[in-house]
Design brief:
Blueprint lengths: L11 E2 L2 H8 L7 E8 L7 E2 L3 E6 L4 E5 L2 E5 L4 E4 L5 E5 L7 E10 L3 H8 L4 H7 L5 E4 L4 H11 L3 H16 L4 E3 L18 H13 L6 H8 L3 H12 L3 H19 L4 H7 L5 H12 L3 H12 L6 H5 L12
Parallel strand pairs: 1-3
Antiparallel strand pairs: 2-9, 4-7, 4-9, 5-6, 5-8, 7-10, 10-11
Length: 327
């Protein structure tokens, strides 16, 4: 049985400087591009200040973005918003690994917005970036989109900016997409879309980082600088979800990652992600996933086959906590 106790639970902040030094690359006009294989030290639960656009070239596995858990395969394209914790974990890589798992593009969060102020034709790209708070997954992408990804990779300077702008424009018109966010509030007829409040963003960052701790509404209110009743109303108005439901959804999403990536007992995972008893954990898990944690593990093992747990994927098990904090 795998011991998860020493594994960190919190998402690691990845600074632009550290990433470029690590990879030996320099950004070009606020746009950085690199290739990474699997296994890789870049496969970890982390977040950063830039947008991330990722094309999966080889292997299949699972996508973890905020409180979303999904799947990817060769050809998958994902757009992840700044400061949103995420990780793409390959599950069927050969024992020797692969040299090129993904092509990854990072670009400054205000790059396209500033460019659109001077060149109105870029509004399509801006609208794409504002489509969802967490990001967007593009389905059934064609070879043209893949080729344009490679054009960004193989260009530099102004040419790279132009290639990225055209790729984002085309993605903004792509008809098959799925937002990552599970807490987007539908707009009422004639109502303007709710704008994310910085106080809510602070609370969400707290949950992503310390989800296994005792995160009461009072503690979240202290983080946001507002009272519990005001935060409760604000959080629901902005996200369409209660604070407690959001916290539970993040914990369940992290449990899904541990269930699929480790052999840890369900009872151990229950406490690692912040629940105080197994019955409470099972109840919330079944409500959100329509199956028990054990059934989910069996389902994912059957979906990805016997090769779903290579040794190297266990080494990169999602950051879990030994904290005693519970709900």
């Amino acid at each position: 049985m795998e011991d998860l106790s020493p594994v960190r639970r919190d998402a690691m902040f990845e600074s632009e400087l550290a990433r470029n030094v690590e990879l030996g690359l320099e950004p070009s006009g606020g746009i950085g591009c690199y290739v990474h294989g699997t296994p890789s030290r870049l496969e970890r639960w982390h977040y950063h200040d830039e947008y991330e656009l990722q094309l999966v070239v080889q292997t299949s596995g699972r996508t973890y973005v905020g409180n979303h858990v999904g799947a990817f395969k060769p050809g998958s394209i994902v757009l992840i918003s700044p400061r949103v914790p995420h990780n793409l974990v390959s599950l069927d890589a050969p024992a020797a690994g692969v040299d090129e798992r993904s092509v990854v593009v990072h670009f400054a969060k205000d790059l396209m917005h500033k460019a659109a102020e001077l060149f109105a034709d870029l509004q399509g790209a801006v609208s794409l970036l504002e489509r969802d708070r967490c990001g967007v997954e593009f389905l059934n992408a064609d070879t043209d989109l893949h080729d344009r990804f490679r054009l960004v990779q193989n260009s530099s300077g102004v040419a790279r900016f132009c290639a990225l702008a055209e790729l984002l424009q085309r993605l903004s018109r792509w008809p098959e997409f799925r937002p990552f966010s599970l807490t987007t509030m539908p707009d009422a007829p004639g109502q303007r879309k709710a704008v994310m409040d910085p106080r809510v963003e602070k609370v969400q960052a707290l949950v992503y980082r310390d989800y296994a701790d005792r995160l009461s509404l009072a503690k979240a209110g202290d983080c946001a600088g507002v009272g519990v009743h005001a935060l409760s109303r604000l959080f629901r108005r902005v996200t369409g979800s209660t604070y407690t439901d959001f916290l539970i959804s993040v914990r369940v999403a992290r449990a899904c990652e541990l269930l699929s990536k480790s052999d840890a007992q369900v009872s151990s995972i229950c406490y690692l992600v912040g629940f105080n008893n197994i019955s409470n954990f099972n109840r919330h898990f079944r409500r959100l996933k329509n199956m028990t944690p054990s059934a989910y593990r069996d389902h994912m093992a059957g979906r990805f086959g016997a090769a779903a747990k290579p040794a190297h994927s266990r080494a990169s098990t999602a950051q879990a906590s030994t904290s005693s904090g519970r709900i």
